[in-house]
Write a structure and sequence with these properties.
Elements: E1 5-9, E2 27-30, E3 33-38, E4 45-58, E5 63-74, H1 90-101, E6 108-121, E7 124-134, E8 139-150, E9 160-170, E10 175-179, E11 187-190
Antiparallel strand pairs: 1-10, 2-4, 3-4, 4-5, 5-6, 6-7, 7-8, 8-9, 9-10, 9-11
């Protein structure tokens, strides 16, 4: 029976957890169209939809492109500072900002990219039909025609080429769980440096 689950740990592959900068501490989104609406079943939930030529730049320089992007926000945990803080002085407002800084992303429930998702970070590339980012679990789920590739740039980089139907990436531990099937098994190609010593030709004796 073919093992449908293959777990690989590439500490050098997904560097998000190793970077000093939290990639989601600053998100810049551009698209041809954007729509915001309140969820029908929850008045505290807002859904932002970005459509056509979506381009996202994260704080660590990572770039994500797709045809659509959906961000679900929970308004219950969003804290907004109003002008009433003026009477307490500037220091009080600065302290409030510091307190809220650690939970700035707590109101983001889910980020979903769809259709022709391309993710790039330095010498790493990934693509899939969709990508679901859950900041509570610190996971990124790539679904459909998943391809992950790393090229050699630094000395310690190992060229890797992966294909699977799904890939679950833990953004904290850098663990990648690859899922395949008997029809579409996981394919992994790792290129290792090999120093081939060619025999020296004997010099003809004079």
């Amino acid at each position: 029976m073919l093992n449908k689950k293959l777990i690989l740990i590439f500490i050098y592959f997904i560097a998000c957890s190793l970077n000093a900068i939290d990639p989601f501490s600053h998100i810049k989104i551009t698209s041809n169209k954007a729509v915001c609406e309140k969820a029908k079943d929850n008045s505290h939930t807002f859904i932002f939809n970005y459509l056509e030529k979506v381009n996202v730049i994260l704080a660590d320089g990572s770039q994500i492109t797709s045809e659509s992007l959906e961000i679900i926000l929970d308004n219950k945990s969003v804290k907004v500072l109003d002008d009433s803080g003026k009477k307490h002085g500037r220091k009080n407002r600065e302290n409030k900002l510091k307190e809220n800084k650690s939970s700035d992303l707590s109101h983001i429930k889910q980020i979903t990219f769809k259709n022709n998702v391309q993710i790039s970070n330095q010498n790493r590339r990934a693509q899939s039909d969709s990508a679901i980012i859950n900041l509570f679990d610190n996971t990124c789920l790539l679904v459909g025609n998943v391809k992950i590739k790393q090229t050699k740039v630094a000395q310690n980089d190992v060229p890797v080429d992966i294909q699977s139907t799904q890939a679950l990436i833990n953004l904290k531990t850098s663990q990648i769980t690859l899922l395949g099937s008997s029809q579409e098994p996981v394919s992994t190609v790792i290129e290792l440096n090999k120093n081939v010593m060619s025999p020296k030709k004997k010099q003809p004796q004079k």
